[in-house]
Amino acid sequence: MRDKESIRRLLSEGRVESLSEEAGSGSQLFRVLISLAFDKEDLVCWRAIEAVGTVAGEMSKVSPDRVRTLVQRLLWMLRDESGNNISSAPEILGEIVRNAPEAFSDIAPILASFHDEEGLRRGVLRGVLRIAEVAPELARQSDYLCREYLQDPDPLVRAYAVFLARALRFTDCLAAIEALASDGNEVRLYLDGSFRTLALGKIARETVILLRQGKNRNGTG
After folding, report:
1. pLDDT attached to residue 94
2. What is the rounded distance in angstroms from the CA atom of residue 188 to the CA atom of residue 61?
3. What range defines the domain where residue 203 resides?
4. Nearest of 74, 119, 113, 114 to residue 93 by alpha carbon
5. Do 153 and 137 share a structural domain?
6. pLDDT surpasses 70 at 81
7. 28 to each of 1, 18, 22, 34, 69, how far by Cα in Å?
8. Contact by Cβ (8 Å): 190, 159
9. What's the rounded Cα separation, in Å, for the pair 208 and 177?
10. Listed range (19-28, 67-76, 149-158, 183-192) with the worst mean pLDDT
């Protein structure tokens, strides 16, 4: 297996997919990636989170039990009240389910259940969103997160709630999203391998258009 610095270098270069070739390294590779997933101001952190999911997806094809062990460890970290838990655990779980939705369909609602922990809320909503983008049927039972957090004090949480409603085509909260169209806050997000700063109001306006189009196609608009 590559050493930690070579893995960091790969992540810095954006070569996340190449780490899927290391899936046979198992828990050792997961440990290195998780050790790089602490500083969310660092691009390497987000790419490490993404890489855990990519590697887990490959490994689950031949050794799902090994990935299940990692999932259980991450859930234990979320439940740990000692303060020793990794703050990126919700995002990592989201990536694992995203990359192996059939093997870990049971984890989606468990991940969503941690939403009431303020320190985990951003990660939980992002994790559920990442699942919803590829397997909306697994996240649909968590659509209550959209309604609950569209007016959250944290602009990033509001942004994730809007994106989640978009991914789920959840029109029940269309009016609440319309109310965010004039929200002047900007949010910094990890998207497509890099950081992007987006206006929350623009995210809301674009989502309203998509949701209205969906309603009209279904004959309910």
Report:
1. 98
2. 34
3. 149-221
4. 74
5. no
6. no
7. 8, 16, 10, 10, 13
8. no
9. 7
10. 19-28
Range 5-13 contact pairs with CB under 8 angstroms and sequence separation of 24 or more: 7/32, 7/33, 7/36, 8/36, 8/44, 11/36, 11/43, 11/44, 11/47, 11/48, 11/51, 12/43, 12/44, 12/47
Q: How many Cα atoms sit within 13 Å of 170 on the Cβ side? A: 27
107 and 162 share a domain? no
Mind listing the pLDDT tens digit for each residue in 92-130?
A: 999 999 999 999 999 999 999 999 999 999 999 999 999
Q: Is the pLDDT of residue 51 over 60?
A: yes
Residues 22 and 71 in one domain: yes
7-41 pLDDT tens trace: 999 999 988 777 777 666 667 889 999 999 999 99
Boundary-marking domain end, from 88, 117, 142: 142
17's tokens:
């997919």
Model pLDDT, residue 217: 61
Query: Where a domain ends, among 95, 120, 142?
Result: 142
